[in-house]
Amino acid sequence: MAVNGFVGLYIFMLAAFAGWIIVGNVPAILHTPLMSGSNFVHGIVVVGGLFALLNATTVLEQAIGFAAVLLGAGNAAGGYAVTDRMLAMFRSSADTPQRAKHRHVRAHHAKKA
Amino acid sequence: MLISLSQIAIGVTGFAAAFLFMYGLKRMSSPATAPSGIRVAGVGMLVAVAAAFLYAFDVSPAAQPHLAVNIGLAIVALVLGGGLAWRSGKTIAMTAMPQMVALYNGMGGGAAGAIAAVELFGAKTNGSSQLVVTLIGAFIGAVSLSGSVIAWAKLDGVLKKPFLVRGQQAFNAALLIAVLLVAGAIVFATAGGVEPVLSVPALICIFFGCALLFGILMTLPIGGADMPVVISIYNACTGVAVGLEGFVLQNPALMIAGMVVGAAGTLLTLLMAKAMNRSVVNVLFKKFGPAAKQKQGAMTGSLKPVAAADAAIFMRYAQSVIIVPGYGLAVSQGQQKLYEFVKLLQAAGVSVKFAVHPVAGRMPGQMDVLLAEAGVPYDLIVQLDDINSEFATTDVALVIGANDVVNPEARTVKSSPIYGMPILNADQAKKVYVVKRGDGKGYAGIVNPLFYDDNCEMVYGDAQAVLIQMIEAVRGLGSAAAA
User: Quick check: A8 contacting B, CB < 8 Å?
Assistant: First the structure.
């Protein structure tokens, strides 16, 4: 897919607006998961790393490409793991204890019962 | 050139990933839908990564002989990097979350920089404009990598003190100019117009060296308490770097995802700086110290200590209590005990809410996560703007491990370094209890006149120890009544 300079600029502008508006609606209570969630999203860089590594022709390119995939995969997997863990902790008073996923929460309810 | 099937598949999956990322982030606008939001984004990531192996069908003829080795390397890198980060992400303590996010972010920046390095060393960029975009992305990615690692080291306590050498800012400026000159030399040398003094690969090495050093030196002087703003900036930077490399690789999914994160990170940075009453420039280039050393007027009134048990029993018979948690609570790991105490109060018919300042904790919203981890339902956690009017009609404000965020000087004293910072109006409650380790000052280094108010009493001690005493006092009351 060919993306020339001006099409690129349009994509960047629209994406920036979309990001600004989507994130502007997120309440402060979720700002930490949001930061780690957006951190996860730029883990898509691993796809670029894979492209670079698969097209590598020299040992140097292979080494740097390997590093790109390694780091990008770490970004994506780590970002997902922490965000998912954090978000699973948020529950409302209306939630039943069974729905609460975290072990601390379960421990609390066990004590109560 | 005909478009092959694999190219179509990569295009479609990239499009799907970009859509799922934005839809996932959109679902993060409420705690009820947020968990599904990250899963939606996760599906997008899996699909995009799996489809990326289809690049194997379209590699350049020069890369064909290496293809088997390269695919093997890719799988090893994915499993190794993904597996290690996944394990650390699943096991890290919630209080250590900020430095972990910094580290993952640095990895993303490093990956963007590495992609740029492959493009540069392999001379694969097509034309000067692509080369310039590659270099900009490489610079931002490299700065984000080294800066994030320093941020991680600071938050993790590996590096303890802000480190500022005389003339460091001038040196940073010189370094930036050097980066620009080297980048210019690379562009001209590649275009073939000018014979470079050094070979292009050597110039590329110098370029990355300077960029990495710049990231380190930019971040070192910034104090640990300002690190959340810095992480947010680097998060935005990594996003932009990924977006720019996406343009170079002609991959719209990377462009969209990167730029969405760039905008999101910028907005978060501004929100955070506002909540801390600082400008972003102020965080990056100035220290907090000098402004905080202003003389303060003498305090009228006195500090009135009170026993934890007495405060607990007073709250047990109150109508309404608002709790203001601060980082001191997290330091003493007292969140679980706090919620236990709150449940006792609720059982006695007291209305309890949590008032959370936007920058409570070491990252915006970290206190909300720590309370959620302890089992506090999110509908009890109320943000600053929504709860400030309620303090005046509340019986007790219980301030635990927080200081500057309840300092009324921010409203009235123009000379105060925190003047204008949004604060929680705990001083307006009928009674204020402050749980604190000692008479120490807050992060801003100023005395808090709230502590000297007539309606304020101090409960001295470690937050968790105090809460255990409070729980015992209220429980003892219940058993005495039963007997």
Answer: yes
